[in-house]
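To whoever is covering the structure queue this week,

Two jobs came back overnight. Logging them here so there's a record in the thread.

Job A:
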Amino acid sequence: MSRSPSFARVAAVLFASFALSLPAGCGGAAPAAPPAPEAGGGLVGAAAPELAAEVVSGEGPSTLKEAGGKVVLVDFWATYCHPCRKSFPKYQELVERFGGGLAVLAVALDAPEDVSKEQLVAFADEAGVKFKILWDKDQSAVKSYNPRRMPTAFIVDRRGVVRHVHAGYEDGEEEKIAREIEALLGEAAPPPAAAPNAAPPPAEAPAPSDGPGSSP
């Protein structure tokens, strides 16, 4: 399969940060030493950057803020990425397996001059997925996350911290991700966010005084 024009643009962004090749996970020649699954731009242990990508289709939250309290799988993909066609159905299985505890935000990196919104929707429909599809038209998300190849899945815990990164997709990868999600769901839930402009609790009435002048 020939590489699309958007591939060159996305690869240029990643080369500037990592000098690594995206095609390794998308049908190109594999590098001599592929990055470890946890390699992911130094985000592990850091707060996950918020996403401001255009909503294309799907169910569930559209941003990390909306997904607060859930484990989130932030997946970077493209229509020309062959492994993405295999990973999408597996991620849908994970959504169904973990119910309301997991949200998937799938971020497309295709350039708007190369594909249409309808083509992105068609890709998701063909894969049989219902999770949220986003479109990183200006590549702001890819610059924040710096995925090493496609697809790359960032596993974000319920506090909004990146805990695991899976660069590329191989058969059985979803079981590794499932174990990580299960462990994260077993951790203590984050405290509920305080309501904005919440009124302070009422002050307690002072106790009666026993000092001079008080009634017997």
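Job B:
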Amino acid sequence: MAKKPIFSNTTQDWRQLHLGRLLGHAMRRFDARVLHLMANNDEVPLALSNLAARAQVSAAHIHITRHLGLQGSRLSELAQAAGMTKQAMGDLVTQCEAWGLVTRAPDPSDARARRIVFSDTGLAWLRAFERAVAQAEAEFRQEVGADVATVVSLGLEAYAGAYPDLELNS
């Protein structure tokens, strides 16, 4: 007969309300808000705005927006910064290339390699992303209050900083 597990807490709320789960929900809510703002931004190229509005652009595509260097990045660098496999990142880059967000260009330091770079459309997308993130952060501050927002931000920075191998590229 199996032994019944002993839990320190008789309620099981901790399974749904622990910090990691709350952080995950908060991140998904924040990313969804950013994508919604971008879908309704007149400065986002219309084709991309339509893709965002139809939920074709996902949080996975945001990895490219977050991690692609302004001077471009190799696929392996981009994948590592986003915490993805090269194959998964390659698929995202191919899709973003088809949408006109990025192009593949020769790497000046290695003729065999290619660099992923923002296109002009991609740079417009990036500027819109910057504004959408700023607005979503302002909405967060308004919803929870400036003091709480500051504490949350400082706490998350400290917590993320506890992992030196974590890539924090902007």
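Note for Job B: The radius of gyration is 19 Å.

Please reply-all if you pick these up so we don't duplicate work.
Q.
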